[in-house]
Amino acid sequence: MNTPDKSKQPGTAIVTGASAGIGLVYAKRLAARGYDLILVARRSDRLDILATELRERFGVRVTPIKADLSNLDQLDSLVGRIEADETLTFLVNNAGTSTLALVADTSFAAIEAMNDLNIRALVRLSRAVLTGFKARNHGVIVNIGSVLGFRSLPISTVYSATKAYVLMFTRGLQAELTGTKVVIQLVAPAATATDIWEISGVPLTALDPSTVMTVDDMVDAALAGLDMGETLTMPSVESPGSLIDSYDAAGLDLLSASQNSAPASRYAR
Ligand SMILES: NC(=O)C1=CN([C@@H]2O[C@H](COP(=O)(O)OP(=O)(O)OC[C@H]3O[C@@H](n4cnc5c(N)ncnc54)[C@H](OP(=O)(O)O)[C@@H]3O)[C@@H](O)[C@H]2O)C=CC1
Ligand SMILES: N[C@@H](C=O)C(=O)O
């Protein structure tokens, strides 16, 4: 058993979507760092197997919770549970789903699934931990966005919109929490080799392999970014600094330029 240094008492991390892909690797990495874990997903059989492995390898406490986070009752039951948990120090808002198709070809059910999971669950779970994190002036929220949150492609309109929400929500939270020791990281991966591609309707085999990162590399880079104090981590971008600065500056400039009581002169009749 690889026993972490328990004297540091990292607390409990909750990882949503821990049964596969990115969330599963976060669960392993956080267990290796000594966090007790709450693992959430619908496939409880997978969570149980992972929980057994992590308990045996790292000697941490692991609580699997079966929940469909797009179901409001099940989401709120989890919210109630984590609001009351004072051991929580880390939230990975990872569970997400994707349908990549033209809007007119996407069912209402698929649209709602993306909105409910990628946005509503992420916001409620963030809200649920925030009160405790602020009161204790301690805690980490990692929100998994996407590079598609910066730009819609014709087949990613709804998915991109959900990830743009994650971008704005996370940037806003970071501004709210300036001056505190609560850390909020936005992770914006590009294509990563997980099942989500098959689920989205665009199989991984349709992608150029030179653009696809392994899930281990993605999560390790994201955690390295967190350790370095990055607030926005884009694992596959070599030099994001000036691009992110330009993006943020353009948003601020547009907001500043809008602060007028009169319509712009081009609209004068
Ligand atoms: N892979 C990629 O290329 C990229 C992924 N992302 C984002 O990364 C995150 C993780 O995706 P990834 O690991 O790739 O995808 P996977 O499909 O491999 O994993 C998704 C995870 O979310 C869980 N999940 C899905 N629906 C629900 C639900 N309704 N309730 C609870 N849990 C659910 C799944 O578990 P279960 O089915 O057991 O419920 C699974 O554990 C997502 O937010 C995604 O948008 C961002 C950019 C790129
Ligand atoms: N998950 C991917 C698309 O479905 C992505 O965010 O690139």
From TrEMBL:
Gene3D superfamilies: NAD(P)-binding Rossmann-like Domain. Keywords: Oxidoreductase, Plasmid. GO terms for molecular function: 3-hydroxypropionate dehydrogenase (NADP+) activity. It comes from the Bacteria. It catalyses: L-allo-threonine + NADP(+) = aminoacetone + CO2 + NADPH; 3-hydroxypropanoate + NADP(+) = 3-oxopropanoate + NADPH + H(+). Its EC number is 1.1.1.298, 1.1.1.381. PROSITE patterns: ADH_SHORT. Belongs to the short-chain dehydrogenases/reductases (SDR) family. NADP-dependent dehydrogenase with broad substrate specificity acting on 3-hydroxy acids. Catalyzes the NADP-dependent oxidation of L-allo-threonine to L-2-amino-3-keto-butyrate, which is spontaneously decarboxylated into aminoacetone. Also acts on D-threonine, L-serine, D-serine, D-3-hydroxyisobutyrate, L-3-hydroxyisobutyrate, D-glycerate and L-glycerate. Able to catalyze the reduction of the malonic semialdehyde to 3-hydroxypropionic acid. This is NADP-dependent 3-hydroxy acid dehydrogenase YdfG. It comes from Lichenicola cladoniae.
